[in-house]
Design goal:
Length: about 375
């Protein structure tokens, strides 16, 4: 028995040495810490949406004033437009701001089912009606992409909603693509898909369940690739997460709104379940180099984290400061809408942190994986 014990120990030691000498193929690189190049204030708001109209101007929603507010890198207000109402250029429920083209901004009002295009001065350019109950996720190449819940397929008790994913022409308000059979296209842990964004080319990428990304080479394809994030960490909600969830239940529209006392059972259930990995809405976005940025829920207090994917391969993660609420990318700029640490009154002020990503180098090969900053003398900035 004594000899067997030592023999087993020796074998284990040799195996451990071999593992140390062999490169760890699935090792997750340490996140790269980014430092903001500039800081701007942002209004308190329910919305998490942010859009860069160019590299110097970021626009966010002031949901309490029914306005869109655009600020520059130095914090100056460039323009603010909108007011409460049903008329042209007025809003009831601002659900999305997104860049349409350089200097032009698309604003979706979820209650009015309307997309309005504004120029850099805040002047209304055009508007188009969207389908009722359309959940717009973003705008790309003169197209709004998003989804509707398939009410015909819904029944009480459904754990996974069936969505009809689609694209809508921003000029005509007409569907250019619709698809409602995507829940069965991928073998996900929970059996369904959630929000997604178009991939460069004709593909699409969705997030699913707690930690999975679903890649389609073509949005009409009959096969998909399911990839689990190698950086996933199971984490229970923080007190800030719990408070945000409780506030969300009291803000649900119309008759669905709950008094605070009625939210307690739902809040306690939320407190005991691990966080989903993807920080939605707006968790997925591509940069000018066709790298996929994925906002995660890891920590999201003093710091927040983004995964970066190249094609269907995880390349690494970057860390930014404070609690990320939303983000946008344009050319060499990453703008992150954040909540700062709560003040003595318990209110967490909002801000916009600007990051220069022109020197960000991320690699996804097994031989060299991770993100780093290139010396500025090596190579030109990203196009």
């Amino acid at each position: 028995m004594f000899r067997s014990h030592w023999a087993v120990a020796a074998i284990l030691a040799l195996a451990a040495t071999a593992c140390q000498n062999e490169p760890a193929r699935n090792a997750v690189p340490t996140p790269l810490a980014l430092l903001p190049a500039a800081v701007s204030p942002a209004p308190l708001s329910v919305s998490k949406s942010i859009a860069l109209t160019d590299e110097e101007t970021a626009c966010v929603v002031d949901s309490f004033e029914f306005q869109v507010v655009c600020r520059g890198r130095e914090g100056e207000e460039v323009v603010a437009f909108g007011r409460e109402g049903d008329g042209p250029g007025e809003f009831h429920s601002l659900s999305l701001v997104a860049r349409v083209s350089l200097g032009r901004l698309g604003v979706v009002d979820g209650r009015l089912n309307r997309l309005t295009i504004f120029n850099a001065s805040g002047d209304r350019v055009s508007e188009v009606a969207l389908p009722p109950m359309y959940l717009a996720d973003g705008i790309r190449r003169a197209t709004v992409f998003g989804s509707e819940v398939d009410l015909a397929a819904f029944s009480p008790g459904d754990l996974i909603l069936t969505r009809i994913y689609s694209a809508v022409d921003i000029n005509l308000g007409e569907f250019t693509w619709k698809r409602g059979d995507l829940n069965g296209i991928a073998d996900t842990e929970c059996g369904g898909l959630d929000k997604g964004v178009p991939r460069p080319g004709a593909g699409y990428v969705f997030w699913a369940c707690r930690r999975e990304l679903i890649f389609l080479d073509d949005r009409d394809a009959n096969a998909a690739m399911v990839v689990t994030s190698p950086a996933y960490q199971e984490e229970l909600p923080s007190e800030r997460d719990v408070e945000a969830f409780a506030e969300g239940l009291t803000r649900l529209g119309g008759r669905m709104a709950m008094p605070r006392s009625a939210t307690n059972p739902y809040v306690e259930t939320f407190r005991e379940e691990p966080n989903r990995w993807f920080n939605v809405p707006g968790a997925l976005a591509y940069d000018s180099k066709d790298r996929l940025w994925v906002a995660t829920t890891l920590d999201r207090d003093t710091f927040s984290y983004f995964e970066i994917w190249i094609g269907t391969e995880y390349a690494g993660s970057v860390r930014v400061r404070d609690r990320a609420m939303g983000f946008d990318l344009f050319q060499n700029t990453l703008a992150v809408l954040v909540e700062r640490q709560p003040g003595p009154d318990g209110i967490a002020p909002r801000g916009i942190d600007w990051y220069d990503i022109s020197d960000l180098d991320c690699r996804a090969s097994e031989a060299e994986r991770g993100c780093s900053l290139r010396p500025r003398s090596e190579g030109a900035a990203a196009p």
